[in-house]
Design a protein that fits this description.
single chain, alpha+beta, two-stranded antiparallel ribbon
């Protein structure tokens, strides 16, 4: 499998690692327990079996033109309803990406 990943700024990496530590301290599953050097906070943009010819160079050009991007962590979410637990990252400032399911929610009565 090939992935397109962005590494975090030192500040965002510190925030993610602190969240991992809080999960571990609470006795919950956490990536803090994985001490392998490649276990580093990152943002996965895409995953594919194989890159088509020329894709790596094109991705490098696109990233060079678009980075860095100022982001902030959002609330924790469960990806696909089961696993893994993720911390969505949103560009700052932005309208969060969303699929509208209801336009107006009536207040509780």
């Amino acid at each position: 499998m090939r992935t397109v990943e962005l590494l975090c700024s030192p500040e965002l990496e510190e925030a993610v690692r602190a969240a991992w530590e809080r999960l571990a301290a609470a006795g919950l599953p956490s990536l803090a327990r994985n001490t392998h050097p490649t276990n580093r906070p990152h943002l996965t943009l895409a995953a594919v079996d194989e890159f088509p010819p020329g894709a790596e160079e094109r991705l490098a050009d696109l990233c060079d033109a678009a980075l860095p991007v100022l982001v902030r962590p959002d609330r924790v979410a469960v990806l696909d309803g089961s696993a893994p637990l993720v911390w969505p990252i949103r560009p700052v400032p932005s309208w969060p990406p969303a699929a509208t399911t209801v336009r107006v929610v009536p207040s509780a009565r």
